[in-house]
Amino acid sequence: MKVFNKNTLIVCIVQAVIALAIATAVAYAQGFAPSQEAMLWCRHFSDGMFVAAMMLGGLGALIWVSSTGFFDIFSYAFSSLLVLFSPMKHAKEHKHYYEHKCEREAKREGKAGPGSMLIVGLCCLALSLILLVLYYQLGGV
Questions:
Q1: pLDDT mean over 48-67
Q2: pTM for the full model?
Q3: What torsion do the CA atoms of 66, 67, 68, 71 make, to the nearest 10 degrees?
């Protein structure tokens, strides 16, 4: 499994730019203006980074869990339902769950882990907490 390469860095940068765009959109939706004082900047961007963290971190966590094979049972159940209700396929020709699980594992084996989105989401969460602490240090109520 590859841990770090040039493509991973590019993907992380793109995801960080997307997170920053989400945070900026949320900050402007809450009334951010460049002429405001620093305390309100921290408040608005803390909220924005938290929303970005939940979106990217949540999606990243789901993708990471799916890469472990946790959801293989659902894909097998769906294919079994298709075989059950399809007049063209025969149930005796349908593979068993163990065979399905082994095929899915073989497909995942050579691929790098999808943890970059989860890491970017966690970084956004940490930045959100730092901005929140800074907001309260600057006199936020």
A1: 92
A2: 0.75
A3: 30
